[in-house]
Write a structure and sequence with these properties.
Largest sheet: 2 strands, antiparallel
Number of strands: 2
Number of helices: 18
Strand order of the largest sheet: 1-2
Structural class: mainly alpha
Radius of gyration: 21 Å
Order of helices and strands: HHHEHHHHHHHEHHHHHHHH
Oligomer: single chain
Strand content: under 5%
Shape: globular
Distance between the termini: 51 Å
Helix content: 55-70%
């Protein structure tokens, strides 16, 4: 006969470190913090880099950029908690980590210099509402995002992130020592530590391989003199976000441009959600989960814009970390959300984390991004290698990945089209996969 204690353990009501592999089991707070911190470190630099790029293009001051980074941390933490535990119909109740997406960078660098940062804010408010409404009625249109379409998008997301990981490994785009020997050493040592820890660690400790690699890489970077502590100078104790620091400007051209990218971002969110449920939970994402994740993306993005910041979306980097570690516990991931919120309220936390060198991050993320590619290929395999699926996957990926490597091909199109598609392989793969899925006839064998 099963004892009461055994029944509690089986149901996850008893706190145990083994519950990190279950969605809803309880995990001791102290033991869950390292896993949550690992998620924060995996996305921290990538979360603030888009802000630094866009604000630099728009001519904002360093003080304005610093305050927006704090808002980004706070909004990412709040958005993650909403995804984990839901508010009304917002959120998927899944371990989705939120952050500032690179997807919007190119269009913002197009909109900002022409119409100002205020036009970006106005467009994000509108675009977020559009995505939120689409999310709430996702069950009516989700069928056009068939499993093979989602699989192609996930694969494209993985491939698109490989260059991000490689750039970080080399020291970060625009860095004075890009590709230098010391960046190669730092990135390689970090990567080897991740691999070695994963090989030799026992039990659940294996899943802290990324955190171990980041820690060793950071210490090595300090001894190599590659950590810039100047960001810690004159850091205040508490910083609260200011509502509407920029008066939004609703420029129709900016709105159309940004809304189209929100549709691409929505597809990435569907891909992220599908990848996570397929590879970690071993099932398809439900309509309710897709709807909740999209609605959260949109509404939190609009809220972020009200505080002057950029859109908050699901982070593919952390989907890669989930695929690698299989740690999906919502309460464990929530500790990471708490760290993000603290980083947003107490500037010193964010300032310390911001000193993490790009090469250290690249050493860890290059393996995580590869996991997303493999997840996408596994999803394609799960759809079945019918002639129809092979054609959709092969053509959408070859056009999406191939054409965007030669952005000059789009020179004959209006600037708006080039901005959206020329260097955004995910957008092209999404469009091609949707069209092929809609117009290609079903396989004869299937119809028979």
């Amino acid at each position: 006969m099963t004892s009461k204690k055994e029944m509690q353990t089986a149901s996850g009501s008893t706190a145990s470190i083994e519950n990190i592999y279950t969605l809803d089991g309880k995990v001791p707070l102290i033991k869950s913090i390292p896993f949550g911190l690992q998620h924060v470190l995996a996305m921290f630099v990538a979360n603030i880099a888009p802000i630094m790029i866009v604000t630099g293009t728009c001519g904002l001051s360093s003080q304005e950029t610093a305050s927006l980074i704090q808002v980004a941390m706070l909004m990412a933490g709040i958005g993650t908690l909403v995804q984990l535990f839901t508010v009304w119909k917002l959120g998927a109740k899944l371990p989705i980590v939120m952050g500032i997406s690179f997807t919007f960078v190119s269009v913002f660098c197009y909109v900002g210099p022409r119409w100002g940062y205020e036009a970006i804010i106005g467009a994000v408010i509108v675009g977020g509402i559009v995505e939120g409404l689409l999310g709430l009625c996702a069950k009516y249109w989700r069928k056009i995002i068939s499993p093979i379409v989602a699989a192609c998008v996930v694969t494209a997301i993985g491939f698109s992130l490989l260059s991000v990981g490689a750039n970080s490994f080399a020291g970060g785009v625009g860095s004075a020592d890009f590709g230098s020997a010391r960046n190669w050493i730092l990135g390689s040592v970090t990567l080897l530590c991740c691999i070695g820890f994963n090989i030799f660690a026992k039990g659940h400790l294996k899943q802290l391989s990324v955190l171990f690699g980041l820690a060793v890489g950071y210490v090595l970077a300090v001894f190599m003199g590659m950590v810039d502590f100047s960001a810690l100078n004159n850091v205040g104790l508490i910083a609260l976000p200011e509502l509407m620091p920029y008066k939004p400007v609703f420029n129709i051209s900016a709105i159309v441009s940004v809304v189209m990218i929100f549709l691409v971002s929505a597809t990435e969110t569907i891909g992220d959600t599908s990848a996570m449920t397929n590879t970690v939970l071993k099932r398809e994402a439900t309509d309710k989960e897709i709807s909740g994740s999209l609605a959260c993306d949109g509404i939190i993005s609009s809220l972020s814009a009200c505080f002057g910041c950029l859109p908050i979306t699901s982070f593919s980097q952390n989907v890669g970390l989930l695929a690698m570690t299989k740690v999906v516990n919502r309460y464990t991931i929530a500790t990471g959300a708490g760290i993000l919120i603290l980083a947003g309220i107490f500037p010193v936390i964010g300032a310390v984390l911001a000193t993490l060198p790009e090469a250290v991050l690249g050493g860890c993320t290059i393996m995580m991004f590869g996991n997303i590619v493999i997840s996408g290929l596994q999803m394609i395999g799960a759809c079945g290698y019918t002639q129809r699926n092979i054609t959709i996957a092969a053509l959408s990926l070859s056009v999406g990945l191939g054409f965007t490597q030669v952005p000059e091909m789009f020179a004959i199109f209006p600037d708006l089209i080039g901005t959206i598609f020329a260097e955004n392989c995910v957008a092209v793969v999404f469009l091609m996969a949707i069209l092929l899925n809609l117009f290609m006839p079903e396989d004869n064998a299937k119809s028979e």
